[in-house]
Please model this.
Amino acid sequence: MTTSTVFALETMDVPGGTETILRGGRHLFPLLPRALAGVRRIGVVGWGPQGRAQARNLRDSLAGTDITVAVGLRPGSASAADARAHGFTEEDGTLGDWLAVTADSDLVVLLIADAALAAHHRKIFAALKPGATIGLSHGFLLGHLRETGGDFPPGHGVVAVCPKGMGDSVRRLYEQGAEINGAGINSSYAVHADPDGNATDRALAWSVALGSPYTFRTTLESEYLSDIVGERAVLLGAVHGIVESLYTRYRLAGDDGTTAYARSCENITGPIARTISRAGLRAVRESLDASGRDVFDRAYTATYGPAREIVAEIYDEVADGTELRSVILAERRLGTRPMSRIGGSPMWSLSDRAHARRDERGLPGGPVDPFTAGVFVATMTAQVDEFAERGHPWSEIVNESVIEAVDSLLPYMRARDVAYMVDNCSRTARLGARRWGPRFQTAYEQIAYPAAEHPADRALLAAFDTNPVHEALASAAKLRPAVDISVG
Amino acid sequence: MTTSTVFALETMDVPGGTETILRGGRHLFPLLPRALAGVRRIGVVGWGPQGRAQARNLRDSLAGTDITVAVGLRPGSASAADARAHGFTEEDGTLGDWLAVTADSDLVVLLIADAALAAHHRKIFAALKPGATIGLSHGFLLGHLRETGGDFPPGHGVVAVCPKGMGDSVRRLYEQGAEINGAGINSSYAVHADPDGNATDRALAWSVALGSPYTFRTTLESEYLSDIVGERAVLLGAVHGIVESLYTRYRLAGDDGTTAYARSCENITGPIARTISRAGLRAVRESLDASGRDVFDRAYTATYGPAREIVAEIYDEVADGTELRSVILAERRLGTRPMSRIGGSPMWSLSDRAHARRDERGLPGGPVDPFTAGVFVATMTAQVDEFAERGHPWSEIVNESVIEAVDSLLPYMRARDVAYMVDNCSRTARLGARRWGPRFQTAYEQIAYPAAEHPADRALLAAFDTNPVHEALASAAKLRPAVDISVG
Model:
């Protein structure tokens, strides 16, 4: 059944049609037991960033019901102490071995790392009790099964609820949601298999319980593609490439290191992200004076083509399975040769000095840098357009290309640095960023920035101005409250 | 039969053992008819750089024998006029449709582009006459067949003779060979299938007739791997990445553009290439004074690790078939979106000015730049070591990692520019260079060059000093005369 008998799905207008969404909120928590009929225990397997956020959100949302939330860990996991510190204990039966917790749960939320899923999914599947639903927050396993000729076990529902933000923000904004109803990170949901007819309700209940302000529908394949491509492009890989290339450009133009850092990294994670989050993409250009708009226009039109070319290449390779094969090969190779860290390059040594220049509240002040903005907005728009051409739902496009960046990732990069992110996020994302970040960097240095000397391409600018993304972003903005995205 | 009854194969000492080689030369031409027993016609399919060089060398070498050399072209090929201008004509039966020429030849040398081979090999195979031998100069088709589940047609010998240099140099040095016996481009040979027992002699005869100073033995798979990896690494991809990263480094350190260009691109294609060609790798360091050697050492040891990491990644992906899949995807995509050109980046606009600084004979003068040299030699050594670890024959290692670069490719880059090469060589090489050049560039900028501030790693330097490659290069040097590698 693809509709819900419990929640009131809504139809949202999007460019070219409508989409089905579920508006979330704490007022829906009383409906959770009915939507989770047949679920007595939810097992959250894994205590990484998503695991520890989702387990806590679920437990809080289901407090007072008969549904328990337990955490399952691998034997010898280093996370046991932290899980206990957060109230998941062996004594009260809410912490245990991952296979035991799996065998005992009616909804099994698999939040272990991709490599672990790849290595151990068969034994996890074998441990499932009859009627249990498999829950994923990432489409990786689908890609892996396809590439290796495997499949999900028959007779079990397979659903995905994928928060469009980092684990920490899933928990942090949920806590803000105690005061601002509806604060949270949006999620997509997908029903991949539904033998018993309850998969939609279980997926939506899971998303509501996570605190998602709104939940939009997608497929596991679409989620996988947009997610894996996105992290290689505007969510992480391209951001790294952009800031390195801009830093070098500004240094070569005569800026000292701290100024170059401010104009590139600080400007993207600060004023540009904040402007887009509050007011959309066109507002970035509109915030500039006439000469700034000219610089923006030339940077935008010079960057759009090269950006689109690379996003298309990434997409082809992810869709084809080629990118996944390279991830698998890298995992093997990294067994013997650890991944080098990119945080040692010259620009990152300036981050402390640049941070010191921020105002005392750490708020992103200062004007938008027009060249930086043109480059960044062009990259974001290129990804949007590529996803639109490939047929992704508009909610997914805007969440994966804009909202997740400006509301979750870029604020983290502001607090910790882009290099920190590239060196510390999920393994698959790290590998992807290392592979594709350099492509953006060099294409921008060698093709885009030289072309920015030329007059702007008016057709590309008109296409930007009338791009359906602005309408889609505005619709999405109505569905989520303004929240404080600054990271302490 | 894996030995020759016609040519005197020799055993050459290489690190760790011996290899079988054939020393070439024009004095062997009288043996060609015997080695080519049963071959009345050789069909060279394709008139690209390799096709037009090999067809002419073969014809000249077989002049006065009963063996004719014909060129086969695709219908509507734009090359027909040029082939006729070089004496291959329909009238005397030495120019024709590719399938007709194939059907009429006893040795069919397939020198069309990889994409064309991929698309049309089945009909070419179907046209072969009984007992005909298939000749390749590139292992690509093997990789393609494996990836697509195809195979060579049974009942036909399959051999490879792969000149270790660009087509133009295969012809140019052959012509020099009229005066300097033995001038030419070395080749590898492989016998992949030998149903009739004549494959070895036919392969060696082909190589001798091309003018190869020496021919070393390999396998089609080994050739494929070393070739595809090499063009993504030290033969082209890494060279581009190196010169862009060094150019930026020198500019940021205060050099004007022309000086930065000279210290990076000119120095590699000029004094460094010439020194290695004449005197080997250690001679580059030995040509420096004490303070230069310190700079070299620190650059070398900072670069070696990152270089090795990338070469290993390239190798894994080529061996796994992943890289080939990306080439196929790119071909599809490029049908609608042509490949952008990298020759527009700032450094290439300086090439004319830099060329003007060369001495009037265009000879590479001036001293070796120590930092540039350390980076370049480290990259070359990293590729050598990776190939050695993967078990390639030493002749193949030194030809694919050193000799082909310094005797063929770098002189062409000197005459025309690295950017020209990246924008104009074979499609597969162009795609590979665009994919991997940026990885070298960014890894060097972000990881290697910052590390060059630190003292050199004495263990890495000792490993360089005692590397088996020096002995292998010296053996190879004995087998080829010094030739004029400058390109007019």
Remarks:
- Residues 320 and 401 of chain A are 21 Å apart (CA to CA).
- The interface with chain B takes residues 241, 244, 248, 251-252, 305-306, 309, 312-313, 316-317, 320-322, 325-326, 329-330, 332-333, 337, 340-342, 344-346, 435, 437-439, 441-443, 445-447, 450-451 of chain A (CB under 8 Å).
